[in-house]
Amino acid sequence: MNIKQKKIRIFYLSLFFIILYVPVLSVVLYSFNDSSSTAYWAGFTLDWYRQLFNDRVIFESFKVSIEVALLTSVLSAIIGTASAIISIYVTKRAEKAMNGLMFLPLIVPEVALGISLLIFFSELKLPFGIFTLVISHSLFCVPYVHIMVVLRLKEINISIIEAAKDLGATRWQIIKTILLPLVMPSTLTASLLALAMSLDDVIISTYMAGPTTTTLPVHIFSMMRVGVTPKVNALCTLFLAGTFLLIGLNQIAGTKGGNIIEFEQKQIR
Amino acid sequence: MNEQLLSIININKYFGKSHILKDVTLDIKDGEFITLLGPSGCGKTTILRCIAGLESIDSGDILLYGESIKDLAPNKRNVNTVFQNYALFPHLNVYDNIAYGPRIKKSMGEGEIKKSVAEMLELVQMQGYEKRMTHQLSGGQRQRIAIARALINKPDILLLDEPLGALDLKLRKYMQTELAHLQKQAETTFIYVTHDQEEALNMSDRIVVMNEGVVQQVGTPGDIYNNSKNLFVAGFIGDRNIKEVKVLQKKGDFCSVKLGNSVIYIKPDRSLVDHDKCSEMETAVLAVHMDKMKISHEEVPNSLYGQITFVHYAGSQIKTEVDVDGELLTVIEYQNDYGNYNIGDKVYVSWEETGALLLPKEDTTGRGQDE
After folding, report:
1. What is the pTM for the complete model shown?
2. Which of B105, B135, B150 lies closest to A266 in CB terms?
3. What tens digit of pLDDT does each residue of A114-124 get?
């Protein structure tokens, strides 16, 4: 490779990362700015964070967000893992249908999904709040879990299941002692992803939120309408920190899962 | 010992439209090391899976101690399998892998399990490996653990599906001896599947040669090697010269046949090979082990005269190709047996009268030498 090509490559990559991360950095930076304007730097302050922590509404919506995200991640982990395991015990055609249907919530535009859920839950006369939020968030999180666990199951050597059967295990015992432990890393990874997706969902949450229960992103969105205060910057910074933490955890869980896959591939060879 | 253990009666198996097992009937005695031998796709692994219950059979029956097991689920059959790729549980350590069977069936308490696992590890010479994860083991070690994991359940039969296939040549040879000893020590019936004739001949009490879903011959390694019943077995087992000949005359036990333009007398073993099927003046197949042939410069009675076209040194053996009236015969001799032969030498090729097989030509159930 000649030097010119190399330079172009470096330039391109730098530009990419600058566009990606500089806005993010600026949010973090201005959350410490001692001025309500983002036009200039007026010195370091933690004032916005203080205000943020004293804001009852933000605190309440944050609580709702966390609660919804945790419940969603647990619920979708259970449903997604179960459906993935079921998919290997049904006929090939049923398996295909299952996998296809699982993709649908990911393809349908969220706005349409949100409206249909809104109509559906209103018809059922369900009170909007944590319950509807968790159900609707799980709707788009379950497919991720399902797909990730299915991928993991595909990597598991079928003769391991036969070996367990051969050693006397019933179907339930196989699921409990072989399949679940083997897919657990994928389930964990997927549930962390679900947690992150639930935490930053705006569109569906806007439809599903109750009069007193809004999630944090929805609240931030509404705050934006009356103008950006550095308080939002501070909030976004904390949010970013949380997201990065989750991604970090995800990576760790992912590597762990990856190792087991490698062991197994070695075994097959 | 030698009590009838497993009877496979006329089983048939189809995968879609392909007929995998065709009227397979087999009797297996208690304590036997029996090998199913055949080229890939001959149905040997399918038989194993039918015995294990991992495949159902379409007709026929499988009896264990005289009772039908064909409708029992695999977990209800007292047989265990060592899979081709060992299929150890990657998330469990060696101890938990071996303890899996008794734990899942609750057939032993933890104390007893601990004792049994120790016994099994001793049997397969893997003491001290309890805490290792399976990915930390070598191929040979994994295979021992797979055997221990199966044997701890005290199965009536241990089924082994090409367990040495993934090992390198040296280890494979070593494990052959090991397995044969292990089988006697464990006093368990082994049904072993392989496509490797050397493995089969080395370890088995009896060999079942299969091709295209049909049992070709059942017998001791000696029987199978020396007295192959048909052309397929003759071509599959051992290295033989297989040549079409014309049967000239049959007189008592002797038979004169014409190979090219030369005539030679043979004395096939009437008790094992049905050479009555070969009639006079018709074409038949002559099969002679390459290493049972001799070549010499001096004329010997009842021999074929030809010219050496190729000499190949293979370690302790010399492989010589001799052109006899346009038919190439391969002779394998040990280096120090006879003098040196060079390409172009005129030589006489001979063999013991009883060392040859005469097989009917049409009796070709499937082509030989598939692999």
Report:
1. 0.78
2. B135
3. 999 999 999 99
Determine the residue type at B213: G
Residue A11 has pLDDT above 80, yes or no: yes
Task: Give dist(CA B260, CA B126) in Å, integer.
Answer: 58
Give the burial string for A71-98 (b: 16+ CB within 10 Å, else e): bbbebbbebbbebbbebeeeeeeeeeeb
List the domain range (segments joined by +) for residue B341.
Answer: 232-359
Listed residues B197, B231, B265: the one ending a domain:
B231
B295 part of a folded domain: yes
Number of CB pairs, chain A paired with chain B, less than 8 A apart: 80
User: Residue B283 corresponds to which tokens in the numbers above?
Assistant: 């074409």
Q: Which residues are bridge partners to B19 per DSSP?
A: B14
Q: Is residue B364 part of a domain?
A: no
| Pick from A32-36, B27-31, B128-132: least confident | A32-36
What number is the ipTM of this complex?
0.79
Residue matched to tokens 């209103």: A122
Domain for residue B112, yes or no?
A: yes
Q: What is the edge-to-edge ordering of all strands in the sheet holding B157-161?
A: B79-82, B157-161, B189-194, B33-37, B206-211, B214-219
Evaluate if residue B233 carries a pLDDT over 80. yes
Q: Residue B89 and residue A157: Cβ atoms within 8 Å?
A: no
Collect all residues of chain B within an 8 Å Cβ-Cβ radius of residue A268: 85
Say whether both B218 and B312 belong to one domain. Answer: no
Q: Do the Cβ atoms of B150 and A169 come within 8 Å? A: no
Q: Which residues of B touch A164 (CB under 8 A)?
A: 89, 100, 104
Q: Same domain, yes or no, for B67 and B189?
A: yes
Contacts of A177 in chain B (CB under 8 A): 100, 104
Overall domain count for chain B: 2
